Amino acid sequence: MSLDALKQALPDYAKDTRLNLSSVITTSKLPEQQLWGTVVATALASRSTRVIQELVEEAKGHLTAEALTAAKAAASIMAMNNVYYRTMHLIGDEEYANLPARLRMQVIGNPGVDKNDFELWCLAVSAVNGCGRCLESHEKVLRGAGWTREPIHEAVRIASVIHAAAATLDGEQALA
Hints:
By secondary structure, this protein is mainly α. It has one domain (3-175): AhpD-like (Up-down Bundle), CATH 1.20.1290.10. The chain has helices at 3-9, 15-26, 32-46, 49-59, 65-91, 106-109, 115-129, 132-144, 149-175. α5 packs across α7 and α7 packs across α9 (149-175).
């Protein structure tokens, strides 16, 4: 299982997705842990069995066990947070901001890897899940820690292409 197998599985009409999948991962300027953690977290957020199997297996050769677990934790915690905070935002009643979430989120404070790497993965998952409030929050934390826009932009590019590959492959499977 590999990135190459995933690219080969994409149909001809998804040539742009195939080429982008190759380029966003193989030419990334992100450090290895940030890159592959983003890949794992967004693959899990895609919910595509094929994408998860191919990319997580390849990521195991690039991540420590702790980083792999933290990337999985980012996908898990943001699956919850993105629904909650997106809903609170979309309702449009600011009084909800005064109510405590009462959701356990301790992994954000102690993810087992560099907190900024974890923030990046949470941001990328939030892009896949479409939570503007979480995107703003994680981007603000990263920028406040001195990050430039480029690595944040790169993580979102990776998330978008992995999501496109997942949507394409799952669509093809449904049509088969």
